[in-house]
Specification:
This protein is α+β, with helices and mostly antiparallel strands. It is built from 5 helices and 2 strands. It holds the Pfam family AAA_8.
């Protein structure tokens, strides 16, 4: 999902319903996505490398420093913020909505 938005530069939608909240930690990840556009430690080191390699040509095309991994990852996060849309569906019935 993030790689489609950030690397492939494709519009993406993440639809999340309250019935999918198996652990409360899921909401923390959703909150991080809404606040900063990224989830800390989302990628393993090999996945992170794939992101860097995948985004590097677009960074070069944008005229940015393609040798700086922080700039490359910031470019990736910026694309995710622009291309990934979160849709959260929660039922107002019952007390669960109030507590989440």
């Amino acid at each position: 999902m993030c790689t489609n938005a950030g690397v492939a530069n494709e519009d993406s939608v993440f639809l999340f319903t309250d019935t999918q909240i198996i652990q409360e930690e899921f909401l923390e990840d959703i909150n991080n996505m809404l606040n900063s556009g990224e989830v800390p430690n989302l990628f393993e080191s090999d996945e992170y490398e794939k992101v860097i390699i995948g985004v590097r040509p677009a960074v070069k095309e944008a005229g940015l420093d393609e040798s700086n991994r922080d700039i490359i990852f910031d470019f990736f996060v910026s694309r995710v913020r622009n291309k990934l849309h979160l849709v959260i569906c929660m039922s107002p019935v019952g007390d669960a909505f109030r507590y989440k």
